[in-house]
Design brief:
Structural class: alpha+beta
Number of helices: 7
Radius of gyration: 18 Å
CATH topology: NADH Oxidase
Bound molecules: flavin mononucleotide
Strand content: 5-15%
Strand order of the largest sheet: 1-2-4-3
Length: about 210
Amino acid sequence: MDVLEAIRSRRSHRLFKNMPVEQEKIDKILDAAHWAPSPANTQPWEFVVVRGADARKRLYEFSEEAKKSGRIEVRGFSYIRPLPENISEESEEAERLALEHYSLSFLKNVPLIIAVVGLPLTSVKSAGFQETRNSYKYSCGAVIQNMLLTAESLGLGSLWFTLFDQKLVRQFLMIDRAKHLVAMVLVGYAAIPPPSPGRLPLKLKVTWVD
Ligand SMILES: Cc1cc2nc3c(=O)[nH]c(=O)nc-3n(C[C@H](O)[C@H](O)[C@H](O)COP(=O)(O)O)c2cc1C
């Protein structure tokens, strides 16, 4: 599959078939992840590959807990709006209700979860690079997109998942405190292709300077 085709056809999947992902495909996804760009080639990432059903069930339970308590890292779900800076009590309540109705059951069915772990200590301290503290996050973003596109090109569905409790999951996966669990990438054979959520008109996003 051509890269442009993979970019356009990739969707966030939340329904998976009960079918394992072949080792050869897992290796390809990890290899593509590792070829992501990073400042001065620091490669500030590591991976934890979770395949066991018991471990996946624990991750589901931790995520349910995070959902209930609202202790979550990033909001990026299709049904949930990002929280504004100065949130009123009513809209906070609306967010809480939306989150309550958001099902996480796909976590129990997905055959493969790859935790993407960022290494903040390898971030480059260069005079020209302002955002040194965050550079590992940008690199991990590139890593994750490589994974999603590779999964797509291999006929697999995937999801960039962040609704988890950082501390609980980190402890469970035995990830050092100095490292940051940036996301979990869910991969499996898609049960039903999700509809495209679409995008805003591109012209709203682009300024041309001639
Ligand atoms: C940083 C980030 C965090 C996300 N976290 C979640 C998540 O926790 N749960 C979820 O269902 N989708 C999550 N998503 C997926 C988005 O909801 C999805 O990309 C968006 O709705 C657009 O849909 P599409 O990927 O099918 O184009 C996340 C995406 C990003 C980039």
